[in-house]
Amino acid sequence: MAKGWPVVLTEGDVVLRPLRRRDARAWLAARASNAAWLEPWEATSPEAVTGPAPTFAEFVRQMSSQARAGTALPLVIQYRGELVGQLTVATIVRGSLCSGSIGYWVSEHVAGRGLAPTAVAMAIDHCFGPVGLHRVEINIRPENAASVRVVAKLGLRDEGLRERYLHIQGSWCDHRTFAITSEEVPDGLLARWRTAGGA
C-alpha cells in the first residue's frame, strides 16, 4: 500500500476520507446541484472523446488504483456528515522532486465557511507528514476569486502565471501557481491556519 493511504483526516466538523463507490448518489447529486458553480473551472480534454463516459464505479476504481500506486490521494470532503466536495492530491512524483498538486471543489451552499482552506491545510499536512512530500502546488485560474482567496488565507506563495496551462471548457487557460514546501510550515499548515483564526 502507498505511503499515507488509505487515510481519514478530521478537524472539527470537516472530514477528509477516501472516495468510495457507495458515495455515488451523494456525489452525483452534489455535482448536479453545483453544475453552474463548478463548470467554469472544470478541466476538459482537447482530445476527442470516444465511447460512453465512465460510470461512477469506474471513476472510483481508477482513482483508487492511482491511490494504491501512490500517484494520487482522492478524498471526499464531508461537513457535519454531508458530502460537500472533493479534494484530490494528484501528479504525486517521488525522487528528487517529491511533489504533488491539489485540486478541490466544494458545494456552493457551504462556500465561505472556511471548509476549503481547512481541507487543503489538512491535506498538505498529510502530504508533508506520512506521504513524505516536500512541495505541494495548487494551480488556479486568475478569474477564480474564491479559490484564490483560499490560498491567500493559507499563505501559499504565488509563483506566477503559467500561460495556457490547462484545458478548461474547450480552451487553453492561464493559471497562477501557488506553492508551499515543508520547510515553510515546520509546525504544520493547519496549526498556522488555526493561529490565524481560520479553524
What would you note in describing this structure?
By secondary structure, this protein is an alpha+beta fold. The chain has a single domain, classed as Gcn5-related N-acetyltransferase (GNAT) (Aminopeptidase). 30% of the residues lie in helices and 32% in strands. It has six helices and eight strands, in the order ββαααβββαβαββα. The chain has helices at 24-33, 35-38, 56-69, 115-128, 145-154, 189-195; strands at residues 9-11, 14-18, 73-79, 82-93, 99-106, 135-140, 157-168, 171-181. The protein has an eight-stranded mixed β-sheet with strand order 1-2-3-4-5-6-8-7, with helices on both faces. 29% of the residues are buried.
CATH superfamily: Gcn5-related N-acetyltransferase (GNAT)
Helix/strand/pairing class, anyone?
Answer: alpha+beta
Shape: globular
E-strand count: 8
Average pLDDT reading: 95
Q: What's the number of helices? A: 6
Q: How far is the first residue's CA from the last residue's CA?
A: 31 Å
The parts where pLDDT drops under 50 for at least 5 residues are none
Radius of gyration: 16 Å
Looking at CATH, which topology would you report?
Answer: Aminopeptidase
Indicate how many domains the architecture comprises.
1
- Compressed to H and E, one letter per element, the order equals EEHHHEEEHEHEEH
Per CATH, the architecture is 3-Layer(aba) Sandwich
**Largest sheet: spatial strand order:** 1-2-3-4-5-6-8-7
Classified by CATH, the class is Alpha Beta
Strand content: 25-35%
Largest sheet: 8 strands, mixed
Helix content range of the residues, please? Answer: 25-40%
